């Protein structure tokens, strides 16, 4: 019951009342330390009161709980050294990491906790010491891996075509080699090494991604932009395309160019994932994800309807014409592709003006140009401009959250020998087996003096204002005395604190 009340207090809108009641309940806790403490009992979602305060973005309660956990080591003038307890904050020994919970929540207020002490100092320590070097090395390794895969695709086994052409439009001169013919020469064996590296890399990607999907859940793992959801979909699809290409090569099945081309596009697009490690490029990847999975996905539904309708009309119009003179619409799939190019204004109207064109072509093409080029493309530009304006206000905040998510990901994937635990063991200071983060804080005495002056003058202004209200209450029945009383109270309030505010300005 006490633990339930603590969780309820974390969700209370009155932060001051919640903090006082929280302390009151903990004062009756018999097991204030150890696993039996009320603060360490999780709810049905596996969240302790401390983690719940972070997930809900309750910064007041979070700071209050952190103040209870800190230990002042020493103080010398304006310098103060504080030890902050990293229990439930550090993701070293946590199955449900506090940092991962914050970056995966949809509440923007929760991301503000990443700027508070000691979370900010802990993330900076992890990222600068281990996260950034490992991430840059991983980016370089992935680019070299993609170069290897690209070279294997460029020099894939092909042989000249020996069969006769079946159509005048047939332009194929090379075909795929059989498996027995693909690995004969020294160049083939060198390519085989690159292909083995590519397949091993695809298997490693699946082995690393699948456990996280089972642990977090597919909806949360693929749906969170900060966790890299779209890029996880891309890299898993890429690995599957590599395995499909391998099966088609081993079985000598024609058509390996289809999964191979998909894998090339997806693999190189996944390089943008590594831009999150750089402050100059990270916010732009967030912008691209927001636009692609926000505005562009909605716009594609409208674009598909328009293209389908006009492509069908163009195909029907040119269905009775000679395809040799009007090759852009000789069949229905080509009509769809040509209409798509027209929609994006990549090509001009693909009409042969040396022959007589149907009258309806001019009418339909005129309507298509008005709807597609003038209306819908400008609508897309306006939608993207609005999304850019909205995301620009929080892109730096989202980038910092991405850095936290990347740090937690690297800490989970790398061996313990490559990523030692951050902080100081409490045994060095007689604080038990818990780990602490040492933070040096500099206190500006002039700032606190100015704040004391400000509070004193505010109190004096409130007292003078109350006295003026009392005089107005006494003279409320005398109409002609209301205006002088107002000016009198204003002048009293102004003269009594004027000297104090001038002293404050000079001090500042």
Can you walk through the features of this model?
It is extended and about 90 Å long. The longest helix has 36 residues, at 119-154. It starts with a helix and ends with a helix. It has helices at 2-10, 15-27, 49-55, 59-69, 98-104, 108-111, 119-154, 179-182, 186-216, 218-223, 229-250, 257-269, 282-317, 332-343, 359-392, 395-413, 445-474, 482-507, and strands spanning 71-76, 79-85, 158-160, 174-176, 424-425, 435-442. It has a four-stranded antiparallel β-sheet, with helices on one face. A two-stranded antiparallel ribbon has the order 3-4. Helix content is 63%, strand content 6%. It contains 18 helices and six strands. The chain folds into three domains: 5-115 and 423-446, no CATH class; 130-276, no CATH class; 292-407, Helix Hairpins. With 508 residues, it is mainly alpha-helical.
Tell me the span between the first and last alpha carbons. Answer: 51 Å
- Summarize model confidence as the mean pLDDT: 75
What percent of residues adopt helix (DSSP H or I)?
Answer: 55-70%
Strand order of the largest sheet: 1-2-6-5
The residue ranges in which pLDDT falls below 50 over 5 or more consecutive positions are 476-494
Largest sheet report = 4 strands, antiparallel
Q: What spatial form do the alpha-carbon principal axes imply?
A: extended
Which structural class matches the secondary elements?
mainly alpha
Order of helices and strands: HHHHEEHHHEEHHHHHHHHHEEHH
Number of strands: 6
What gyration radius follows from the Cα positions, in whole Å?
A: 34 Å
Instruction: Classify the beta-strand content into a percent band.
Output: 5-15%
Number of domains: 3
Q: How many H/I helices?
A: 18
Q: What kind of oligomer do you see?
A: single chain
């Amino acid at each position: 019951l006490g633990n339930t009340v603590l969780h309820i207090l974390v969700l209370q809108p009155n932060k001051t009342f919640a903090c006082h009641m929280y302390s009151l309940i903990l004062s009756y806790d018999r097991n204030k330390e150890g696993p039996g403490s009320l603060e360490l009992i999780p709810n049905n979602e596996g969240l302790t009161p401390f983690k719940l305060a972070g997930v809900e973005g309750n910064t007041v309660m979070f700071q209050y709980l952190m103040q209870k956990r800190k230990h002042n080591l020493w103080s010398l003038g304006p310098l103060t050294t504080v030890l902050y307890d990293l229990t439930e904050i550090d993701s070293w020994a946590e199955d449900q990491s506090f940092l991962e919970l914050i970056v995966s929540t949809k509440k923007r207020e929760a991301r503000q906790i990443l700027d508070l002490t000691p979370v900010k100092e802990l993330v900076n320590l992890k990222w600068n010491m281990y996260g950034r070097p490992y991430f840059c090395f991983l980016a370089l390794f992935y680019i070299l891996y993609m170069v290897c895969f690209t070279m294997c695709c460029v020099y894939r086994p092909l042989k000249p075509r020996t069969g006769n052409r079946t159509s005048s439009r047939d332009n194929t001169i090379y075909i795929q080699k059989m498996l027995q013919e693909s690995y004969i020469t020294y160049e083939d064996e060198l390519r085989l090494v690159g292909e083995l590296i590519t397949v091993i890399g695809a298997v490693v990607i699946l082995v690393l991604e699948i456990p996280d999907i089972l642990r977090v859940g597919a909806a949360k793992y693929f749906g969170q932009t900060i966790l890299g959801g779209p890029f996880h979909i891309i890299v898993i699809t890429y690995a599957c395309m590599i395995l499909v290409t391998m099966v088609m090569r081993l079985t000598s099945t024609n058509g390996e160019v289809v999964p191979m081309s998909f894998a090339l596009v997806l693999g190189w697009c996944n390089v943008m994932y590594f831009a999150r490690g750089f402050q100059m490029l990270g916010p732009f990847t967030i912008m691209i994800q927001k636009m692609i999975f926000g505005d562009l996905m909605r716009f594609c539904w409208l674009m598909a309807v328009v293209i389908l309708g006009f492509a069908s009309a163009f195909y029907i119009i040119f269905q009775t014409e000679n395809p040799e003179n009007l090759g852009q619409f000789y069949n229905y799939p080509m009509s769809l592709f040509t209409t798509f190019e027209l929609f994006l204004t990549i090509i001009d109207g693909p009409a042969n003006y040396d022959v007589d064109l149907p009258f309806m072509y001019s009418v339909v093409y005129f309507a298509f140009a008005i709807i597609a080029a003038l209306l819908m493309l400008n609508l897309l530009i306006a939608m993207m401009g609005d999304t850019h304006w909205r995301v620009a206000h929080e892109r730096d905040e989202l980038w910092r959250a991405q850095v936290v998510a990347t740090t937690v990901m690297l800490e989970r994937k790398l061996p313990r020998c490559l990523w030692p635990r951050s902080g100081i063991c409490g045994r060095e200071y007689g604080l038990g087996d818990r780990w602490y983060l040492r933070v040096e804080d500099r206190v500006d005495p002039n700032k606190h003096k100015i704040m004391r002056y400000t509070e004193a003058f505010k109190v004096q202004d409130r007292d003078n204002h109350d006295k003026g209200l009392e005089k107005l209450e006494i003279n409320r029945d005398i109409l002609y005395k209301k205006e002088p009383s107002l000016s009198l109270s204003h002048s009293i309030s102004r003269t009594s604190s004027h000297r104090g505010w001038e002293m404050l300005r000079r001090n500042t």
